[in-house]
Amino acid sequence: MLLNICNSKTKKVLAAAVFASLLQGVVIATPVFAEAVATSETTASQETSTSEATVTQVPKQSKAKAADNTVALPDTTEQNEIDHSAEFKPVQNEFLKEGEGIPGSEVPYQNERSLSNEEWKAIDSLEKDIRILQREREEFFKNRAKEKEEKEKAFTNAFKNRQEYSIVFNPDDYSTKTMDANGEPVTFRAYEHLVYVKKPYDPESQMLSIFIPEAYLKGGTINGFTAETAPIFMPNGVGGYMPGQIVEPREESRHGGANAALYALSNGYVVVSPAIRGRSLKHENGYETGKAPALIVDYKAAVRFVRFNRKAGRIPAGDTEKIISSGTSAGGALSALLGATGNAKDYVPYLKEAGAAKERDDIFASMAYCPITNLENADMAYEWMFHNANEYYNAGPARRVPPTANSASPVGAVQDRPANAPVEAAKGTAITPEQKEISAELKEKFTEYLNDLNLRDSLGNRLNLAPDGYGLFREYIESLYLEAAQNAIDTGEDVSKTSWLTVSDGTAVHMDFDKYVATVKRLKGVPAFDAFDMTSGENNEFGTYDIPNKHFTRYALEHSQLVTVPKEEEEKEIAEEKARQYNLASPVEKRQLRKANLEEQMEKDKLDLSQYMANGRVIKMMNPMRYIGNPDVQTAPHWRIRHGVLDRDTALAIPAMLAVKLKNNDKAVDFKVAWGYGHAGDYDLPELFAWTDRICKIKDKADAILKEEQKKAKAKEQE
Ligand code: DHB
Fold it and tell me: Does 117 have pLDDT greater than 80?
């Protein structure tokens, strides 16, 4: 082999290097999970490090640039192929790699010069065995890859002849409608049910409607906006990670009065509302078509459709530099994801495959009510907040339930849960001692994750936590609840019955966290999201075209009721012990250890973890936290995030971390806990649209000033 032709000096150097990597290889022998959670921007060295292979991994922070309108089209940049198979690639440890040289044979160690003939013979024989095993192993992986390729091909072929649609907007195909928006008539044009990708997997779920105030088509002005400057409001109707319907303008909504779409129209916004694929979608050919990341691919495709057609003048109104997304719960998560991931390359192959327009997909502002986001860290956050609760009230995984105005709830004030949210039970279920232990473990893990995020408050203090769960971040969370209480007090609400709140002289001064938890009660079991029996809505969201449910955290995978996988911590210890033994072993023993380890590894290889665990890149593509601060991504500059004071569908820590991370990356964030609300959205439309009006008008003013300056500069130049 290559090493045999080196001179002896090089051999020694190489031997040392190989040995070093070998030792490292022993240590990294076990984390077959690294690939599943590796981000696309991890470096080569990170990819093989065990610490990187944990659910708590976060991408490196870096300063984000402000949204840049001149950004190159993402389609022109390097792309990755879609990995339909969600392949869970085992880490090839250096110990086992073919062609790396085997210490002692190709690369003799000095202390091996004195080996006896018998010892050399044994070494030769063992190395022969090792080479045979290595080839066997390679063959095994080749065959598995082939099998997967064939499966993927069958999937691709099943959709090869799907109908193609034009994504060129037809301005002549509309109807004119008039509706009553809180007492004011609003006339608008409705361009309805337009498929927004050329090659939809499910046309019904991949179409959008555009509503434009009629006034703009006659040169009119509404709320200070014109056809040119009207912001584009893009709500999504996703809930429970289920398929989202088009949000039609409606005169009556849950919280009374016009719904968000009609409210927006009456305030001079152009409304674009896409239907979006969700986790329950199944094609008649049997393949799943709405699994992650389908929903964000669709939302982005809809944004691209609007830019593509508006820029060409086909859509007659709306400013594509003022696109504002909105959603509630899973829809809030989706809105946040759209806002965070503008033009991110990860999604490009999916967008291409769906036949999305070649356009930018960054937006101006993202609004999220109670976002069920950061899913791979949500279990830890939940236990950090709700560990002390002794029962939970979840009646089962999220499933379609008819939306009711006042669904039964264990907490009187928690009403009208969105359609597709998990169903609440009237009676609690006791948390078992085993679950309590799991909870404690997750709770502590949360502090590690949180601390790794390196979040800072507005004064620059690190929002961290001690392993016991106390620290500045907890104080920050409490301050959010107190701020909500204070706002309620200031608007004349009676908060005297709030048992967990201490008010002194009209000031909300203290909250009792345990009392809070006891009052609002814990909705979800342990763990809250990645269920050990894989029955949660989120498990269903992370399925693939061929497998409906998957885990998306290493922790749940290790505790899965469906598969037994080695625990990372234990594996690490075993690997370290192996490395120690290897270090001390004689040359013959070293070969024996290598052979035994290889055989052991081959036994483990038989378990294809990709059947049980979501692809790491897909997990990343569902999490806005993983994109904020990435210099290649255009994250929306404006954010509005709300979480109800009584919401227990996810921990307040989840939207709080999102908000702080955004702020730390120089985004403008309006983040508040809303008094009196549980898991709900769109309950404060006047405030919401006052906020959008403000940010849009500031932008328009700034743009006008900039334009004027440029004009002046040009004039000066020409003088
Ligand atoms: C929703 C609620 C949940 O509790 C959840 O886990 C996922 C989605 C929702 O209402 O959309």
Answer: yes
Helix (H) or strand (E) holding 653: helix 653-664
The answer to whether the CB of 398 is under 6 A from ligand 1 is yes
Which helix (H) or strand (E) is 601 found in, with range?
helix 587-605
Inter-CA distances, 200 with 98, 205, 379, 545, 559, Å: 43, 8, 34, 15, 37
Q: Ligand 1: which residue has its CA nearest to atom 3?
A: 421
Q: Does residue 421's CB lie within 6 angstroms of at least one atom of ligand 1? A: yes
pLDDT tens digits for range 271-290: 999 999 999 999 999 999 99
Answer whether 525 contacts ligand 1 (Cβ < 6 A): no
Quick: pLDDT tens for 305-323: 999 999 999 999 999 999 9
Ligand 1 contact, 680 CB (< 6 A) = no
Is the distance from CB of 331 to CB of 238 less than 8 angstroms? yes
Of 280, 363, 373, nearest in space to 332 by CA = 373
Termini Cα distance of the chain: 74
> Which has the closest alpha carbon to 630: 619, 615, 620, 640?
620
CA of 240 to the centre of ligand 1 (A): 4
pLDDT at 365 over 90: yes
pTM assigned to the model: 0.85
399 CA to middle of ligand 1, Å? 10
Nearest alpha-carbon partner for 317 in 275, 270, 370: 270
Kindly indicate the confidence band of residue 88, based on its pLDDT and cuts at 50, 70 and 90. Answer: very low
Render pLDDT for 131-147 as a digit per residue (tens, 0 to 9).
Answer: 999 999 999 999 999 99
Say if CB 318 and CB 177 are below 8 A apart.
Answer: no
Task: Determine the distance separating the centroid of ligand 1 and the alpha carbon of 672, expressed in angstroms.
Answer: 19
Task: Please tell me the distance between residue 678's alpha carbon and the centre of ligand 1 in angstroms.
Answer: 12
Is residue 249 scored above 50 in pLDDT?
yes
Tell me phi and psi for residue 638, to 5 degrees: -125, 140
For residues 330 and 398, give the distance between their C-alpha atoms in angstroms, rounded to a whole number: 11
| Residue whose structure tokens are 């504002």 | 324
Domain ranges of the chain: 7-59+75-108+115-158+563-611, 175-373+640-712
Instruction: With CA atoms as reference, report the closest residue to 217 among 228, 201, 209.
Output: 228
- Six-digit token pair at 379? 């279990």
Backbone angles phi, psi at 703, to 5 degrees: -60, -40
Expressed in angstroms and rounded, the spacing between residue 637 Cα and the centre of ligand 1 is 26
- The answer as to CATH 3.40.50.1820 being correct for domain 175-373+640-712 is yes
Q: Is the model's pLDDT at 620 over the cut of 90? A: yes
Please choose from 242, 295, 329 the residue to mutate so as to test ligand 1's pocket, defined by most ligand atoms within 8 A of CB: 329
Note the pLDDT of residue 16.
39
Q: Could you give the CA distance from residue 252 to residue 29 in angstroms, rounded to a whole number?
A: 60
How far apart CA 277 and CA 289 sit, in angstroms, is 8
Task: Report whether residue 270 contacts ligand 1, using a CB cutoff of 6 Å.
Answer: no
Ligand 1 center–CA 716 separation, angstroms: 58
| pLDDT per position as a tens digit, 55-73 | 333 333 333 333 333 333 3
C-alpha of residue 238 to centroid of ligand 1, in Å: 10
pLDDT band for 595, please (50, 70, 90 cuts): very high
Contacts of residue 498, Cβ cutoff 8 Å, sequence gap at least 6: 485, 519
Please write down the HEC assignment for all residues of 227-280.
CCCCCEEEECECCCCCCEECCCCCCCCCCCCCCHHHHHHHCCCEEEEECECCCC
Residue nearest to atom 2 of ligand 1 (CA): 421
**CB within 8 Å of 423: residues ≥ 6 apart:** 394, 395, 396, 398, 399, 401
> How do 365-369 and 391-394 pair as beta strands?
unpaired
Q: Can you give the pLDDT at residue 82?
A: 55
Ligand 1 mean position, distance from CA 552 (Å): 16
